[in-house]
UniProtKB/TrEMBL annotation:
It catalyses: ATP + H2O = ADP + phosphate + H(+); Couples ATP hydrolysis with the unwinding of duplex DNA by translocating in the 3'-5' direction. The gene is recG. NCBIfam families: PRK10917.1-3 (NF008165), PRK10917.2-2 (NF008168), recG (TIGR00643). Residues 285-447 form the Helicase ATP-binding domain. Residues 466-631 form the Helicase C-terminal domain. Signal peptide: none annotated. Coiled coil: none annotated. GO terms for molecular function: DNA helicase activity; hydrolase activity. Its EC number is 5.6.2.4. Belongs to the helicase family. RecG subfamily. This is ATP-dependent DNA helicase RecG. It comes from Autumnicola tepida. Keywords: ATP-binding, DNA damage, DNA recombination, DNA repair, DNA-binding, Helicase, Hydrolase, Isomerase, Nucleotide-binding. It comes from the Bacteria. Plays a critical role in recombination and DNA repair. Helps process Holliday junction intermediates to mature products by catalyzing branch migration. Has replication fork regression activity, unwinds stalled or blocked replication forks to make a HJ that can be resolved. Has a DNA unwinding activity characteristic of a DNA helicase with 3'-5' polarity.
Length: 699
């Protein structure tokens, strides 16, 4: 088939016409035959046959099954009850679930009587379940002529109103297959198809629109999901390769004085294996001649700072300057103090520049920076100002990257004739595969090991009614010399209410702990007051810190051993994890106490349970991802970050991994896709990037 036929405007398809074409364009973004072909059903109705429970596939199809209910029970939930029935046939067991209409169901459904059930199945906890099935006793079930599995396409209100029903879309689709004879050339190599046992493209397209069976539908969906993710990964990897070739970087091939002496004589502890590995990765980047663009992920407390410092030493050893940029002033100061301490006996010249640096200091810093008297500059966004000019910036490190955008990274580049190496550090544990698809332009290093001797933080969930017990526990800890955080939620829309909660809380704590010194920090305070209060806590002049989430990022008080989170159900998982990371930084046993009321949603319960069960940031991120989807995880409103047609980045994580792996294999052998056998990849790739640059996927 001439592939160009797929670029035909949709108006030309028989049965479409200008009116419908306009609607398809506007409502569904379907402009060409190709767009229509790639417009996939989001569910299927299958009344073609009966399924056995052990034949069920994890597709979104709706199926009918014959079996009997053996048992019905009510499961109590915070948000009402759930009715759950065991449903069996001669091959296995599944569950039927109802959230409403319990009385009717209990009174009318007969146990141990054959029924035909129809509906969508979910796979959960190793078992299929069907919520709110359509049910009919077998004897009443009239056998009708049921011809085929029926695809259900996404629609809009306007389409429905204008009569472009599912049936119409179905017909148009049939017409498309008729006109093109359904002969679509394959877009993956035979090699890949064989390795993954993928069905041919034409067969996949046919079966996703007109599935002949569940098995074929599953195969069709797998094939198309794989392909979609494969080409995204191919794009990211090629982009990354090109960038490496194109963007030259300073070559840091000397490991000298600073790095060597620090490593030999001043390292205050043995590096963890993960730290050593990551430093090696960074060293190899810095020596490669290409600009480094690396994301360093490591859970809170995993020791990213020392890695940053040693990387900066490499820059210094090669005659360059380095800078470290933090998202807040408090963090910048903490980094500064920490690094100055590490460098005490080394004579490294380290300066701090923030929004509140005085004019005279600024002037001095600007000058010393330009004549090379400053080795390392630490600061906030202030580093990005035009006046800040380095003599020769070789390495820029950005802490807590989600607060800085790509544009800001680029701004740092402009400070030189050649871009400095960039290391971005984040404690947000983005699952690796997701990170790879979102930050394809960054290489990723992970510190997946905590320094030795840390006692895992003990996390418990307590109800408000147990508050007195919690207070008693806090008192004991303070008597042992420890410090305590008590954190209140802060949500923009109800800032006033949150503020009131915080102040009420503060008063009751002050009453409960009359002889204890208490700091309070919240968003409505002046920065100077905030810093003052923080500082008192850091210096252990106060024992309790009552705060909103402003303390979330980076604050380091090793003597603090208790983190109490009020209204914990109102926090997201990653935020809870970040907050918990404020404790457990010293040698003492630390505790995290999640306070909530009795009314909790299922999601809240899952979040709290996850926190109680694990300290592993990546595990938590995986749960978070499942609960919220990837958009939210990034802490911004980019839901639907990846605008995918058929794959689901959360559910199809395994396919994503496979796609990435195979894309890498291909490029390893044939980086330019020049081999004869990869011709089809090269062609498809060129089509894909012509029509869909990766930046269209990532909004
Ligand atoms: P984060 O990754 O959260 O920035 P930090 O770099 O602040 O973590 O390190 C947390 C604490 O652990 C610091 O007090 C640091 O000095 C200490 N630390 C880092 N690496 C090690 C190590 N290998 N052995 C012992 N302590 C370490
Ligand atoms: Mg840190």
């Amino acid at each position: 088939m001439n592939p160009n036929i797929l670029q035909t405007p949709i108006d030309y398809l028989k049965g479409v016409g200008p009116g419908r074409a306009g609607l398809l364009r506007k409502e569904l973004g379907i402009h060409t035959y190709q767009d229509l072909l790639n417009f996939f059903p989001n569910r299927y109705l299958d009344k073609t046959r009966f399924y056995k429970i052990n034949e069920l596939q994890r597709t979104s199809a709706e199926v009918q099954i014959v079996g009997k209910i053996t048992h019905i029970k009510t499961v109590e939930q915070k948000r009402g009850k759930r009715l759950v029935a065991d449903f069996v046939d001669d091959t296995g067991k599944m569950e039927l679930v109802w959230f409403r209409g319990h009385k009717w169901i209990r009174e009318n459904l007969k146990l141990n009587t054959p029924y035909v059930i129809f509906g969508k199945t979910n796979w959960f906890n190793g078992m299929f379940s069907m919520p709110h099935p359509e049910m009919e006793p077998v004897e009443e079930y009239k056998k009708q002529l049921r011809t085929a599995m029926q695809p259900v396409y996404p629609s809009t209100e306007l389409l429905a109103k204008k009569g472009v029903s599912n049936r119409v879309v179905n017909k148009i689709m049939q017409q498309l297959f008729l006109e093109t004879k359904g002969r679509f050339y394959d877009t993956l190599t035979e090699e890949i198809r064989e390795k993954l046992k993928l069905i041919p493209k034409a067969e996949a397209l046919f079966n996703v629109h007109f599935p002949k069976s569940q098995e074929l539908l599953a195969k069709a969906q797998f094939r198309l999901k794989f392909e979609e993710l494969f080409y995204i990964q191919l794009q990211l990897l090629i982009k990354n390769m090109l960038q490496k070739k194109r963007i030259k970087g300073y070559v840091f091939d000397q490991i000298g004085e600073n790095f060597g002496r620090f490593y030999k004589d001043h390292l205050p502890f043995e590096l963890t294996n993960a730290q050593k590995r990551v430093i090696k990765e960074i060293r190899s980047d810095l020596g490669s001649g290409a600009q480094m663009n690396r994301l360093l992920q490591g859970d809170v407390g995993s020791g990213k700072t020392i890695v940053a410092l040693m990387s900066m030493f490499i820059a210094l050893d090669n005659g360059f300057q380095a800078c470290l940029m933090a998202p807040t002033e408090i963090l910048a100061i903490q980094h500064y103090n920490g690094l100055v301490e590490f460098c005490q006996n080394l004579g490294t010249s380290i300066y701090l520049l923030t929004g509140s640096s005085k004019t005279s200091e600024r002037r001095e810093i600007h000058e010393k920076l330009e004549n090379g008297e400053i080795d390392i500059l630490i600061g906030t966004h202030a580093l990005l100002e035009d006046k800040v000019q380095f003599k020769n910036l070789g390495l820029a490190i950005i802490d807590e990257q989600h607060r800085f955008g790509v544009a800001q990274r680029a701004k740092l580049w402009k400070k030189n004739h050649m871009p400095p190496h960039i290391l971005v550090m984040t404690a947000t544990p983005i699952p690796r595969t997701l990170a790879m698809s979102l930050y394809g332009d960054l290489d990723i290093s992970v510190i997946d090991e905590l320094p030795p001797g840390r006692k895992p933080i003990k996390t418990v969930h307590r109800y408000d009614s147990n508050r007195l017990k919690v207070f008693r526990f806090i008192k004991e800890e303070i008597e042992k010399g420890r410090q305590v955080y008590i954190v209140y939620p802060l949500i923009q829309e109800s800032e006033k209410m949150d503020y009131k909660d915080l102040m009420d809380g503060y008063e009751s704590i002050a009453r409960e702990f009359p002889i204890t010194q208490i700091s309070i920090v919240h968003g409505q305070m002046k920065p100077a007051d905030k810093d003052y209060e923080m500082d008192r806590f850091v210096r252990a002049e106060t024992q309790i810190m009552v705060a909103t989430t402003v303390i979330e990022v980076g604050v380091n008080v090793p003597n603090a051993s208790v983190m109490v989170i009020e209204s914990a159900e109102r926090f997201g998982l990653s935020q809870l994890h970040q907050l918990r990371g404020r404790v457990g930084r010293g040698a003492e046993q630390s505790f995290c106490i999640l306070m909530t009321g009795h009314k909790l949603s299922n999601d809240s319960k899952t979040r709290l349970q996850t926190m109680v069960q694990t300290n592993d940031g990546f595990e938590i991120a995986e749960v978070d991802l499942k609960l919220r989807g990837p958009g939210d995880l990034m802490g911004t409103q980019q839901s639907g970050v990846l605008n995918l047609k058929i794959a689901d980045i959360v559910k199809d994580n395994e396919i994503l991994k496979a796609a990435r792996y195979h894309a890498m294999q291909v490029l390893k052998e044939d980086p330019d896709l020049a081999l004869e056998k990869n011709k089809v990849l090269k062609y498809t790739y060129s089509q894909v990037i012509k029509h869909k640059n990766i930046w269209n996927y990532i909004s």
